[in-house]
């Protein structure tokens, strides 16, 4: 039971745990830090939800797909490119 | 030599293939706009910055030697152009706030949750909710200070590695981690305040 007292002192608080979430997800915690983090999660009623929310934010951010170019924007880019191909300086018209 | 997913498109652009140029412009349009919006006051100016960046790309393409990935080079250009545009627009670049991951008032003096996170993570299993939350995440990322916004956009929206992001932004790994942590934490907080506990 002496171990229990030592462990208690070394246990992470919720406030400390949330500050470690990114390093945990990045795989940057040392083995002992990771163990302490996971032990905290196993015994905490709230931090697992916090971690799940961070994971959800990351996963959902990765599902955002770019808008397509509108036909108008596409033709602008193409004309930019044609100017360049023709050896003109694209955008050079700003000085005239 | 690192593998560049855009090597083939870049080769075709150099060879005179305008469809390849349009494909690149389309592929990176959203992320370039998002990077630019961190600095300039309006979407219209951001559009100009993106166009300006592509002009810079075309001018510099002859010198581009694939020492970095094309997109690393591209994103550096767009950020540089956005910073110049912001200077022209006389809008100061806000300093990144270094707030805690969750407000200190949410914890008791022993560091335990006093106001625990309102649950919402399981709502993303519903496709309609997931799309709604994703849209809000995109908007929240847009509200971050520039450096956090860049890191979160490049890492989480664009899916770049931390190494690549450090190369684009010319920041240290440690700095990248802090910016990513602050940015993600703030976005999570926004989503919690709008979607949490609504079951």
In short, what is this structure?
Chain A has one domain: Arc Repressor Mutant, subunit A, CATH 1.10.10. In chain A, 67% of the residues lie in helices and 0% in strands. Chain A is built from five helices and no strands.
Descriptive report:
Chain A is elongated, with a radius of gyration of 26 Å. Chain A is mainly α. Chain A contains 5 helices and no strands. Helices cover 67% and strands 0% of the residues of chain A. Chain A has a single domain, classed as Arc Repressor Mutant, subunit A (Orthogonal Bundle), CATH 1.10.10. Residues 1-9 of chain A have low confidence and may be disordered. In chain A, α2 crosses α3 (31-43) and α2 packs parallel to α4. Chain A starts with a helix and ends in an 11-residue tail after the last helix. By secondary structure, chain B is an all-alpha fold. Chain B folds into 2 domains: 7-88, RNA polymerase sigma factor, region 2, helix turn helix motif (Rna Polymerase Sigma Factor, Chain: A, Orthogonal Bundle), CATH 1.10.1740.10; 104-195, Winged helix-like DNA-binding domain superfamily/Winged helix DNA-binding domain (Arc Repressor Mutant, subunit A), CATH 1.10.10.10. Chain B contains 8 helices and no strands. Chain B starts with 6 loop residues before the first helix and ends with a helix. The model of chain B is unreliable at 91-95 (pLDDT under 50). Classes of the chains: A mainly alpha (96), B mainly alpha (199). The interface between A and B is large, with 47 and 54 residues.
């Amino acid at each position: 039971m002496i171990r229990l007292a030592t462990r208690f002192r070394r246990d992470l608080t919720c406030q400390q745990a949330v500050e470690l979430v990114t390093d945990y997800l990045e795989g940057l915690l040392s083995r002992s830090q990771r163990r302490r983090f996971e032990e905290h999660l196993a015994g905490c009623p709230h931090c697992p939800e916090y971690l799940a929310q961070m994971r959800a934010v990351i996963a959902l951010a990765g599902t955002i797909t770019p808008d397509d170019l509108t036909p108008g924007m596409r033709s602008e880019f193409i004309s930019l490119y044609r100017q360049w191909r023709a050896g003109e300086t694209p955008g050079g018209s700003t000085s005239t | 030599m690192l593998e560049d997913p855009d090597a083939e498109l870049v080769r075709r652009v150099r060879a005179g293939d305008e469809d390849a140029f349009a494909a690149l412009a389309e592929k990176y349009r959203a992320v370039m706009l998002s990077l630019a919006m961190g600095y300039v006051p309006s979407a219209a100016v951001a559009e100009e910055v993106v166009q300006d960046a592509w002009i810079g790309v075309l001018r510099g393409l002859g010198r581009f030697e694939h020492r970095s990935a094309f997109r690393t080079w591209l994103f550096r250009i767009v950020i540089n152009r956005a910073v110049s545009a912001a200077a022209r627009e006389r809008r100061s670049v806000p300093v990144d706030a270094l707030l805690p991951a969750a407000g200190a008032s949410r914890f008791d003096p022993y560091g335990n949750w006093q106001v625990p996170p309102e649950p919402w993570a399981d709502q993303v299993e519903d496709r309609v909710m997931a799309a709604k939350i994703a849209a809000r995440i995109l908007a929240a990322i847009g509200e971050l200070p520039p450096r956090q916004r860049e890191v979160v956009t490049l890492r989480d929206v664009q899916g770049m590695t931390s190494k690549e992001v450090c190369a684009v932004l010319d920041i240290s790994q440690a700095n990248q981690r802090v910016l990513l942590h602050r940015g993600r934490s703030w976005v999570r907080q926004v989503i919690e305040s709008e979607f949490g506990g609504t079951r």
